[in-house]
Amino acid sequence: HARTSEKIRMRFCFTFRPRFSSAVKAAFLDRDGVINVDYAYVHSRENFHFIPGALEGAAELVRKGHQLIIVTNQSGIGRGKYSIDQFRELTFWLAGVFARNHAPLSAVYFCPHHPTHAFAPYLKDCDCRKPNPGMLLQAARDLNIDLTQSVLIGDKTPDIQAAKAAGLSKAVLVQSDGTKPWTECAVPHLQTKDLLAAAKLL
Question: Which residue spans within the chain are E strands per DSSP?
Fold first, then answer.
């Protein structure tokens, strides 16, 4: 019975620590374009290139008392570009790099779905794909995150929309890859160059 219920409850996340006993604040980080250069469907170490200053920015957020949680749309899984196993391998490697740079990850939440361009069972209009706030709300439940004290750093409008929908205190829009022009976003937000600049701003 336990195995059946666990299967029903299976979520698309990797957690790297137990639930916090009292509520904590988090920095939710988008991945592609914020942590690494967005080449589209990045799924291996070979094409995972850190944006300059990203790891230092993550460490700065930790020094300021934030738990680090990655929240990333990964429709490449649903589209058949790469597998969950490949994504898991890259994620665990990434967690090791973050830990060695004084920026341990508490969790990584990912959405493999797409409403129109995916294969079953990932072809669905889900509540986890940003701009929906599902990944942030799930993280709050799983880890005891106080969303009203938490922030999000992303490079696209759906990131900022998800932050607003989840009730976060702040959302920071950065330049994709730290170099591309900011996207237009009508939702109120802070704006700066990259993850390192965002960490100093917060």
Answer: 13-15, 26-29, 67-73, 105-111, 151-154, 170-174, 190-192
Percent of the chain's residues with pLDDT above 90: 95
Averaged pLDDT, 31-53: 97
Please report how the helices 134-143 and 157-166 are oriented relative to each other, as an axis angle in degrees rounded to 10: 50
Amino acid (1-letter code) at residue 187: V
Q: Are 48 and 42 in contact (CB under 8 A)?
A: yes
| Tokens, residue 105 | 């990850």
Quick check: 45 and 90 in contact, CB under 8 A?
yes
The span from the CA of 198 to the CA of 136, in Å, is: 19
Please indicate, yes or no, whether the overall pTM of this predicted structure exceeds 0.85: yes
Given a contact cutoff of 8 angstroms between Cβ atoms, the answer to whether 12 and 51 are in contact is no
CA separation, residue 173 to residues 40, 110, 164, 180 (Å): 19, 19, 12, 12
State the Cα–Cα distance between residues 164 and 186, nearest whole angstrom: 11
Active site positions, annotated? 30, 32
Please tell me the distance from the alpha carbon of residue 147 to that of residue 139, in angstroms, as a whole number: 10
Strand order in the sheet with 13-15: 13-15, 105-111, 67-73, 26-29, 151-154, 170-174, 190-192
